[in-house]
Every structure is written in C-alpha cells, then in structure tokens.
C-alpha cells in the first residue's frame, strides 16, 4: 500500500507541475487567453491517444518551465476540443502553432525537433532580446549605464536566465560577453577585474564602476543583487 500511495502521490505532483507550467486551453478560454497575452505563444495541439504526443509533452512542459516570463506555452487536447482543432487546419499530431502577442490567429507552425533545447532556441527567436552582446567597442558606453550587469561565460551566447532577468528588470542594462574575447579583455582592462574564463563571472554596478557579484548564480540570488543596485 505504501508503494502504491507513493506512486499515486508522485503522479499527482507531476500532473500539478505540468498544469502549472503548461496551462490547458479549451474552446472557452482559447481566444481570450491568447488575445490578452503580451507575449508570443506556442500552442501544442495533441491527442491523448497519440504516442508521439505522449513522448513530446514532458519535453514541451520542461521547455515551458524554462521559458516562463518570456514566451507563453499552452496545450490543447483535441479529442475534447474538436471544433477548435478543426479551425486550426491541423494535418496531424502533435502540431505546435505560433501565435503573436495579443492574437488568437496562428502565424506559422513550429517545424523544429521535439526536444527541450530545440523548443527553447526557437522560442527565443520570437522575442525582442534585451540582452546586449558586448563588443570591445561597446564596453565604454556600457560601463556608463546607470545600472548595469554583465555575465562572462565560456559560451558565445547568453544563458537563458540572462534573457529572463533582462525581461524582468528593464531598468538595468544587462549584457553578456564570451570569456577570452576582445570584449572580455577590454572589460577586464577598464574594470580592473580579473575575469576567470573557466567559470561564470557576473559584474554589477553602474556609472563607470562594476564589481564582481559575490553571491550564488541562482535566479533569486541574482535578483537580490540587481535590486541592490
């Protein structure tokens, strides 16, 4: 009994998490939700009997969790919303359609791989990217910002968390630079901070003075640091 209860509890928790990060739309909520959203949306049209849908849905839900605050992701169960799915002109399942902000009319279909990373990468192409990709020529102007934050990482592209922070803190100029690049060297020269290319380094400040972030790299820890600017 204990084993069965544990399994049931785990199942309930998984369902709750899925519902939180991946809201379900139906005939009554579809138009109002999408029309009210100030962000672009991805809507997954699936069917409970569809094997490909069952395989894809957990990955889609994981992408939805990571994209919270940037792009809205939803699910529509077509076995109980046949009229709605019929209006979408679906050719099969699963189908993911792209909707612009404040619109319930699809713009295009998602044609990428059914993987977490692929969905995230595609979703990021739909938004206005507020993260500044620093070049050596931009460093001086960046340092004069009233409130500034820059993340130095080994990768050439900014981490997803940086996009989320930039979206939530529009009064702060948030930038990214690749470790070892000419921009990183110029940043090091102007701030006097030795940048370690083997790990993430975050500098915060403004008006010509940036100092290393001494706390952790989780979202809540970085948010606390930003609020202290």
TrEMBL record:
Q: Which residues form the Thioredoxin domain?
A: 11-151
The name of this protein is Thioredoxin
Q: Which InterPro entries match?
A: Thioredoxin-like_sf (IPR036249), Thioredoxin_domain (IPR013766)
Q: Which residues form the signal peptide?
A: 1-19
Q: A GO BP term, please?
A: response to endoplasmic reticulum stress
- One short Pfam name that applies is Thioredoxin
Q: Which GO terms describe its cellular component?
A: endoplasmic reticulum lumen
Give a GO molecular function annotation for the protein: protein-disulfide reductase activity
Record keywords, A-Z: Signal
Q: Does the keyword RNA-binding apply?
A: no
């Amino acid at each position: 009994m204990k084993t069965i209860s544990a399994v049931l509890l785990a199942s309930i928790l998984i369902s709750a998490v899925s519902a939180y990060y991946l809201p379900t739309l139906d005939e009554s909520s579809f138009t109002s939700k999408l029309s009210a959203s100030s962000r672009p949306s991805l809507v997954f049209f699936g069917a409970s009997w569809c094997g490909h849908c069952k395989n894809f849905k957990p990955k889609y839900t994981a992408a939805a969790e990571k994209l919270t605050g940037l792009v809205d992701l939803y699910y529509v169960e077509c076995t109980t919303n046949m009229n709605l799915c019929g209006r979408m002109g679906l050719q099969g399942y699963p189908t993911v359609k792209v909707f612009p902000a404040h619109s319930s009319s699809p713009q295009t279909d998602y044609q990428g791989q059914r993987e977490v990373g692929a969905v995230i990468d595609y979703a990021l192409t739909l938004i206005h990217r507020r993260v500044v990709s620093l070049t050596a020529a931009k460093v001086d102007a960046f340092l004069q910002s009233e409130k500034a934050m820059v993340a130095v990482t080994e990768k050439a592209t900014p981490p997803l968390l940086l996009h989320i922070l930039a979206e939530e803190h529009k009064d702060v100029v948030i930038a990214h630079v690749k470790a070892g690049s000419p921009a990183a060297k110029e940043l090091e020269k102007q701030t006097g901070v030795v940048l370690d290319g083997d790990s993430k380094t975050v500098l915060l400040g403004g008006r010509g003075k940036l100092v290393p972030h001494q706390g952790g790299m989780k979202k809540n820890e970085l948010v606390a640091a930003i609020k202290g600017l």
